[in-house]
Amino acid sequence: MAQITGIITTLNEEHNIVDAISSLQLICNEVIVIDSNSSDQTIELAKSMGAITYLQAYLGDGIQKNVGIQFANNDWIFSMDADERITPELAQIINTIDFQNTTYYGFAIRRRNMIGSRWVKSCGWYPDYLVRLFKHSQIRFGEEKQHASVPNVNTLKLKGDLLHFSYKNIGELFAKPERNFSTRGAKILYLKGKKATVFTPFLHGFSAFFVNYFFKGAILEGIDGFTLALSIAVNSFLKYAKLLEYQRDPKVREQEDFNSVW
Fold first, then answer.
1. Half-sphere exposure of 243 (CA within 13 A, CB side)
2. Which of 35, 116, 151, 257 holds its CA 20 to 30 A away from the CA of 61?
3. pLDDT at position 85
4. Nearest-5° Cα angle at 240, 238 to 242
């Protein structure tokens, strides 16, 4: 097995953490869990699986994913979310890489995004290449607070897939527990000084649906494709509607904690 440290960031992932760690152990000789003060059994279960655990209040996506690197005993990192799984085919590919002699800084993995047990390929969901295996002395996650990624610098695409159990059902496309991407996005835009008008939510919402449904192939995936495109549009509409609300309503701003983007 290669000298790779697997890192998972968690918050109340007791239903996922055991399978996630088992998956990482197919390729990693060390697993680290960075937990955002879970109130369930995430930490206890992670420890029972042999993972090293640390508590860290949530700092934002990219910053949080980089926290575990300081504790890693290996230069090579595999970063994974708790709702993701390494397939046996991907593990086999990774276990044949000569990490000591490779000239690459990282490897991009195809992510197979799922709704329930259904593999959705439209709307840019596949092949959703992400650099998840990387040499942290050379590259690491950017410090964006939402949708951070590892830069695609001197990397190679691998053919194996990483399963991503994105949503349990289509209802979660609109209201996934413990996620509120539109509010997080609106807060980040507001803190950056971005402005919205009364037309902005409609323009972004309509554009998101049109592009994803017609140009990114959602029209070919029946009800799942239509629902996914609609949820992306609704999320885009709400993000800018909330940004406009923050601009216009001091009382709403006072009720929001802009130091937290979780």
1. 28
2. 116
3. 98
4. 65
Query: What is the mean predicted confidence (pLDDT) over 53-61?
Result: 93
Please name each of the domains of the chain with its CATH number: 4-167 (3.90.550.10), 172-255 (no CATH)
Give me 185's structure tokens: 């996005």
| b/e 84-119 (16+ beta carbons within 10 angstroms → b) | bbbbeebbebbeebebeeeebbbbbbbbbbbbeeee
Instruction: Kindly indicate the confidence band of residue 169, based on its pLDDT and cuts at 50, 70 and 90.
Output: very high
The average pLDDT across 156-170 equals 94
For residue 176, what pLDDT band results from cuts at 50, 70 and 90?
A: confident
Greatest Cα pair distance in the chain: 58
Per the document, the length of the chain is 262
Amino acid found at 183: T
Task: Give the per-residue pLDDT at 178.
Answer: 56
Give a three-class secondary structure readout of the chain.
Answer: CCCEEEEEEECCCCCCHHHHHHHHCCCCCEEEEEECCCCCCHHHHHHHCCCEEEECCCCCHHHHHHHHHHHCCCCEEEEEECCEEECHHHHHHHCCCCCCCCCCCEEEEEEEEEECCEECCCCCCCCEEEEEEEECCCCCCCCCCCCCCCCCCCEEEEEEEEEEEEECCHHHHCCCCCCCHHHHHHHHHHHCCCCCCCCHHHHHHHHHHHHHHHHCCHHHHHHHHHHHHHHHHHHHHHHHHHHHHHHHCHHHHHHCCCCCCC
